[in-house]
Amino acid sequence: QVQLVESGGGLVQAGGSLRLSCAASGGTFSYYAMGWFRQAPGKEREFVAGITRSGITTDLSNSVKGRFTISRDNAKNTVYLDMSSLKPEDTAVYYCAADRTDFSGTLRFRPDEYDYWGQGTQVTVSS
Fold it and tell me: Partners of 50 in the beta sheet?
């Protein structure tokens, strides 16, 4: 069983930057594709970014492409989400998620395709 703990959220002005981290424990991190999702009040949880087991392939939602970057350090069992040019509409609780997969190229986009979730970290962008 993998445990995921997010950190790095907070309050930032529009145009600012934040780095979210998600530390994993309890499993072999390199066996998991990882994703970042977010959920704003009254909205469904949505895909933000994903990365394959090795970190070679990533994908981002259109709403954050060009502003956010996902990366991972398998030696540190950590996945990161670097966010820049933040907008008020980026305000949400951000969750990291792990997908146990035997295939190195797997990268999933739906929340129900992920096996483990962190508790979330709040990101608030003020205008």
Answer: 35, 59
SS3 108: coil
Of 55, 61, 47, whose CA–CA distance to 106 is shortest?
A: 55
Instruction: Please state, in angstroms and rounded to a whole number, the distance separating the CA atoms of residues 49 and 81.
Output: 8
Q: Name the stretches of the chain with pLDDT < 50.
A: none
Separation CA 27–CA 23 (nearest Å): 11
1-26 residue pLDDT tens:
899 999 999 999 999 999 999 999 99
Please enumerate in sequence order all residues whose Cβ is within 8 A of that of 66, keeping only pairs 6 or more positions apart, or say none.
none
* Cα–Cα distance list, 55 to 15, 35, 76 (Å): 27, 11, 13
Give the distance, in angstroms, between the CA of residue 87 and the centroid of all CA atoms in the same chain. 17
Tell me the C-alpha distance between 78 and 32, whole Å: 11
